[in-house]
Design a protein that fits this description.
The protein is of the alpha/beta class. It has helices at 16-32, 47-63, 134-149, 169-186, 204-214, 245-250, 259-266, 274-280, 306-318, 343-359, and strands spanning 89-99, 104-112, 120-126, 153-157, 192-202, 233-239, 292-298, 323-328. The longest helix is centred in the middle third of the chain and has 18 residues, at 169-186. The protein is globular, with a radius of gyration of 20 Å.
Length: 360
């Protein structure tokens, strides 16, 4: 586990002026160095923005570290959040849930190792987008094991990535809905209650969970030969998912993620393909009667700004929906939620489990 950023400086607090100078250097570096496209997929590789953000996050933590004294103590000893699988969880790996023209999509099923024969609440986990791929799946899969250790049956789904050659934007949403249908149809075989389904996603996986749970007509995404299934999604947890791609592309919400990458993924500018942007943006689905939603976000997020979650929370509440906000001041998009685990990570997992216990 990574030590708190303050420990990286051997206990000596750097001056604010030095930190500001360091951040300005990071900004100059990040803005002048072209982002490589090593694999030739038309998308900039994420390594330089990632390095930039981590530097900014650590620096910002140092500048505002004094604010931590006003916060409640962090829960830094939470079972299962150290990246180790809880011992009371059993796993079925690579269970097929959908056939596509190019691949068989699979998920991992985690259930408590128990003699209890009753059906348990179910949560479907979605990995983030094309930036980290399988690395992100492994991160989210570990989180699923922790939730399982608290008495749930979890399903970690691999969906087609938006960055995959020939992938249509609707394919990713279609896969997400197929995973939910699998739980509704077969969840009981693994001890899951198909009437109590929750969703979870990190980064673009969070956006995917929101779209899958909010969409008013999921049957429009059925592939040939697939049957409609009644699904009851009761609760959704989104960790730092983008909710309005138009604002990310036009610069209204700043993101370290290269603007051109959003345009490539969407297939054009917002004015050229407005339906695609609406399809992918959870904000476009807000209306009364949506599942209970928890929005988890780091205030230092440089890839998906906190403002996106704030806007969605405000809109959901205005429409009369149940919303819980969990915004952490010393956490970003990478630092805390995947590449490194910090105190906010353990605290968030406890709150997430409590949310599912309340609403599923």
């Amino acid at each position: 586990m990574l030590a708190p950023p303050s420990a990286l400086f051997s206990g000596r607090r750097q001056t604010v002026s030095n930190l500001i100078a360091a951040l300005l250097c990071c900004c100059a570096f990040g803005c002048t160095v072209p982002m490589p496209d090593a694999d030739g997929d038309g998308l900039a590789d994420p390594i330089l923005p990632a390095i930039f953000e981590i530097g900014v996050e650590i620096g910002a933590y140092q500048v505002f570290a004094d604010a931590a004294t006003a916060l409640p103590p962090y829960l830094d000893d939470v079972p299962g959040v150290d990246g180790q699988a809880p011992s009371d969880v059993e796993t079925a790996v690579d269970v097929p849930y959908r056939e596509t023209p190019t691949q068989t999509l699979t998920l991992n099923v985690h259930r408590p190792r128990s003699d209890d024969d009753g059906l348990r609440r179910a949560v479907v986990f979605y990995m983030g987008g094309g930036a980290l791929g399988d690395v992100d799946f492994n991160i989210v899969d570990e989180w699923a094991k922790y939730v399982t250790s608290r008495g749930f049956v979890t399903f970690s789904a691999r969906q087609r990535l938006r960055t995959a050659p020939g992938s249509d934007p609707a394919d990713v949403i279609s896969d997400a809905l197929a995973a939910i249908r699998f739980v509704a149809q077969h969840g009981a075989e693994y001890g899951a209650d198909p009437a109590r389904i929750g969703l979870f996603g990190r980064s673009s996986g969070g956006q995917l969970a929101l779209v899958a749970g909010f969409h008013p007509d999921p049957d429009q995404f059925l592939a040939t030969g697939e049957a409609a299934v009644s699904v009851n999604v009761r609760a959704i947890v989104d960790v730092a998912g983008p909710v309005d791609y138009v604002r990310l592309v036009n610069g209204a919400d700043f993101s370290l993620f290269p603007r051109q990458d959003f345009i490539v993924i969407m297939g054009g500018e917002p004015d050229a393909v407005p339906d695609t942007y609406n399809l992918y943006s959870p904000l476009s689905y807000v209306r009364p009667g949506l599942p209970a939603t928890m929005l988890v976000h780091g205030a230092l997020d440089g890839f998906v700004p906190l403002r996106q979650s704030v806007e969605l929370a405000d809109r959901l509440e205005a429409a009369g929906n149940i919303v819980e906000r969990r915004f952490y001041p010393h956490t970003g998009h990478l630092l805390g939620w995947g590449l490194f685990h910090n105190d906010g990570f353990g605290r968030a997992m406890v709150e997430i489990v409590r949310f599912y216990e309340k609403h599923l």
